[in-house]
């Protein structure tokens, strides 16, 4: 799940929205409970590092519509 989710975020950051959506759909098919909270744990993202690479990936996934929790 993580490689597809990360690829979705990276595609979104590059403006490749169709590819991002397709990768996220694949990831959600593999892990129906996929959420921003889960990915924040995987990436080690937290509020004390708002501009970090992890935070940017989470923001990209949020923009793709991945649910918060």
Question: Could you characterize what this model shows?
Answer:
This protein has four helices and no strands. The mean pLDDT is 92. α1 (2-13) packs antiparallel against α2 and α3 (36-43) packs antiparallel against α4. The chain has one domain (2-63). The longest helix has 14 residues, at 17-30. The chain is mainly α and 69 residues long.
Write a concise keyword list for the protein shown above:
69 residues, 65% helix, 0% strand, 4 helices, globular, mainly alpha
Strand content: under 5%
Sheet of most strands: none
How would you describe the shape?
Answer: globular
What is the C-alpha radius of gyration, as a whole number of Å?
11 Å
Number of strands: 0
- Output the helix-strand order: HHHH
Q: What is the residue-averaged pLDDT?
A: 92
Tally of domains:
1
How much helical structure, as a percent, in the residues? 55-70%
Q: What is the distance, rounded to the nearest whole angstrom, between the alpha carbons of the first and last residues? A: 16 Å
Low-pLDDT segments = none
Number of helices, where a helix is a run of at least 4 consecutive DSSP H or I residues: 4
Structural class comes to: mainly alpha
SSE diagram, text form:
Layout: H1 2-13, H2 17-30, H3 36-43, H4 53-63
Short note summarizing the structure:
The chain is mostly helical.
């Amino acid at each position: 799940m993580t490689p597809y989710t990360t690829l979705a975020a990276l595609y979104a950051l590059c403006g490749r929205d169709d590819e991002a959506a397709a990768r996220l759909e694949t990831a959600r098919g593999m892990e129906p409970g996929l959420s921003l909270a889960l990915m924040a744990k995987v990436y080690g993202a937290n509020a004390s590092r708002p501009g970090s690479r992890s935070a940017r990936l989470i923001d990209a996934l949020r923009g793709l519509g991945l649910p918060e929790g």
